[in-house]
Design a protein that fits this description.
Keywords: ATP-binding, Membrane, Nucleotide-binding, Transmembrane, Transmembrane helix. By secondary structure, this protein is α+β, with helices and mostly antiparallel strands. The chain is built from 13 helices and seven strands. Helix content is about 65%, strand content about 10%. The chain has a five-stranded mixed beta sheet.
Length: about 400
């Protein structure tokens, strides 16, 4: 029972075909975004600390109130981005804000900061150029990532040339810094695109596999339901109609009414598997024998149930299937052999299982010549027993028919 409950719970996590949600479909993609955010947080944190030390040290630059304001403007969104990457919340929004604010601060640098001795070193804001690129990689679509990978280094190069008043000494050094930064930015964007593409491919393959499996499972369930419904119609509804048509006394009419009532109840409960199969609580051989005798009485058969061996307990669903399959065999013997020589044997095998044999001395039949649309044997007997891991064998010739139904504990 616990295994069945776990299986049902696991099956409930698989969406129906065509209804898989984005959360399920992008499982690997979400994990990849989380990994990228974590790596960005580590790298950006290291570069941010390096730039902060450079800013506080001054690196030859004249410290001013404007520089402190600019430092706050850049570092507040940077710290917010690092926190968002660590906790995995609002990463795109915060990273996008930092990417835009950083570019604006970088472009305004030569116009709001008075710098001296620039040849001694680069301004602290340069250390965050690639942090602006990775922020764009987290926040923006691909075309904007490429724009940031080329645009941010070019903006930095322009800033350096403005500070150096476009003198020749600055062009070589600035060209080297800009080219190196562009290459690194393109590598960062390319790696992000590659990892996301691989994750998207995995998610798509998983989605197709789940959809294929769900479709196959739905088809199998539909076929199982069709067979179960056909067996129900044949066992209960058709049997009730035949009993009503043949009723010629008060007793047979009462039996027909009882059969019709049971058929209607089972039809009304077709949505509930438990209502169809019965409880799965253990059932003893004595109760199965009692059900067989009740079936003989309801079908109006003048026969007995012979008990052999020692009966044990078996699962309720298996016992229910065994009784219904035997009931169908008894009904077939009455309908096609007029109940001649009808005899039912219930042989217990202790706790290992139970075997029920239905024998008649009618004219017999050839199983291979029965049409595919006739479900009395294929669905109501053979398929029903197979559904509970039981067995069903039918031997028939001119001297009679023997239907052997068995369930053994594996």
């Amino acid at each position: 029972m616990q295994a069945d409950a776990a299986l049902r719970a696991a099956w409930g996590q698989i969406p129906s075909p065509g209804t898989a949600g984005t959360e399920f479909e992008r499982f690997t993609g979400k994990r990849m975004e989380r990994i990228l955010a974590t790596v960005v947080a580590i790298g950006a944190g290291i570069l941010g600390v390096q730039a902060l030390f450079a800013a506080l040290a001054g690196q030859g630059e004249k410290t001013s109130f404007v520089q402190y304001v600019l430092l706050l403007i850049v570092y507040v969104p940077l710290v917010a981005m690092l926190v968002a990457c660590v906790v995995g919340r609002a990463v795109r929004v915060v990273a996008g804000c930092f990417a835009v604010i950083y570019v604006a601060a970088l472009a305004a640098w030569p116009y709001v900061v008075e710098s001296h001795g620039l040849r001694a070193g680069q301004p602290w804001i340069f250390f965050l150029v690639n942090v602006g690129v990775v922020a764009a990689m987290l926040a923006f679509p691909m075309w904007m990532q490429v724009l940031w990978a080329f645009g941010v280094p070019l903006v930095y190069g322009y800033v350096r040339l403005v500070e150096g008043e476009f003198t020749g000494a600055y062009w070589t050094r600035t060209a080297f810094d800009v080219s190196f930064t562009i290459i690194l930015g393109v590598v960062i964007v390319s790696l992000g695109w590659m990892f996301r593409s691989v994750a998207a491919g995995v998610d798509e393959a998983r989605s197709k596999a789940v959809a294929s499996y769900a479709s196959a499972a739905a088809g199998a369930a539909a076929e199982e339901e069709r067979v179960a419904m056909a067996a129900l119609m044949h066992d209960s509804v058709l049997a009730a109609l035949i009993a009503a048509e043949r009723a010629d006394s008060d007793r047979t009419r009462d039996l027909a009414v009882a059969m019709a009532r049971e058929a209607l109840t089972r039809l009304a409960n077709t949505e509930a598997a438990v209502a169809q199969e019965g409880s799965d609580d253990p059932v003893g051989a004595a109760q199965i024998v009692a059900e067989l005798r009740r079936a003989l009485s309801e079908l109006g058969a003048d026969a007995i149930v012979e008990e052999r061996g020692t009966g044990g307990l078996m699962p309720g669903r298996a016992a229910r299937a065994l009784v219904l399959a035997a009931r169908q065999a008894i009904g077939n013997a009455i309908a096609h052999a007029n109940g001649r020589g009808l005899h039912v044997i219930a042989e217990g095998h202790g706790d290992d299982g139970l075997t029920v044999t239905v024998v008649d001395t009618g004219p017999g039949f050839d199983l291979d010549e029965i049409g595919e649309d006739r479900l009395g044997i294929r669905a109501s007997i053979i398929a029903r027993m197979a559904g509970v891991a039981g067995s069903a064998s039918i031997d028939s010739d001119g001297t009679g028919t023997r239907v052997t139904l068995g369930w053994r504990r594996s």
